[in-house]
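Quick start: read one record
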Amino acid sequence: MTQIDERLRSRYSTLSGQEQRIADFIFTHFDDVIGYNSAELARLSGVSKATVSRLFKRLGYASYRDVREELRTLRQSGMPLAESRDAVQGNTLLARHYKQEMANLAQWINRVDPAQFGAIIDALLRARQVAIIGLRNSYPVALHLRQQLMQVRAQVALLAQPGQTLSEEIADLEPQDVAVVVAFRRRPRVIQPLLAQLQARQIPVVLICEPQANGLFPFATWSLCLPLDSVSAFDSYSAAMSLAGLLSNALLHEMLQQGRQRIHQIADLYTHLDELEQR
C-alpha cells in the first residue's frame, strides 16, 4: 500500500464530495494514475482542476507533481502500485465498462455512513409495513428490492399497483411504516410532491437516488446515494442492485431466526405448488 493510498483512506470521511470522487477514481485506477496530469485526473474524476490541487495540498503534497513523483519512485523500486490488477486490461469497451462498474461500486461503498445504514436496517426491521416506490428507470430496482425483502419479512409492498394511482396506494401509510423511494434520474415530476406528502405525514422515508439529486435530500429521513456513471449512453444500475442485496442481507442478519423461518416456509410452498424446477 502506497503512502498516497494510506493518506486517502485515512482521511476519506473528512473529504468533500468532490474530493471523494477523486479518491474513488484513484482507488480503482491506481496503476493508471501515474500517466495522468492534473487536468486529465480532474476530467476523468468529473471535478475541477482546482479541486484536484486542493485535495493534494490537504494531503500534504505541494502539488500533484509530487504525487506522480512518489508513484514513479515506488514503481522504479519494484513495489506494486496496487494490491491487485484489473481483471480486464486495455482500452476496449469491455475493459472500460468493467473499470467504470468497479469504480461505481467502490464509490458508494466508501460513502456509506455505518450509523445511518444501521438506522435504516432498524427501521426496516421495526416497521409495520414497508412500502417500496419506484417509477420509470427506478422500477426494476424497486421490484428487485421488494422481491429480496419479502423473503425476510412480511408486509412488503411495491407501489403503485398496475392501474392504480399513488394517492390510493399511500393513503393507508402511517408513521409506524417505512417508505423506500427509489428515485433515479430522469424522475417523474410526482416524486418531489410525493416525498413532501410522506414527510408531512411523518412517514419515515429511505431515499435511494444518485448523488446529484440533492434537492430531494431534505424530504427524506435517510438518503442512500449511488453513482450511475457509465461509459455508454445508458446509466448503470449495478450499484443499485448491489445495494438492494446488501439491505436485504443486513436485515436478514438482524432477524435471523424469523427470517430463516420465513425462507423455509416459502421454500415449502414452492414444493407444494410445484412452482420452481428442482436443481
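The CA atoms of residues 121 and 250 lie 7 Å apart.
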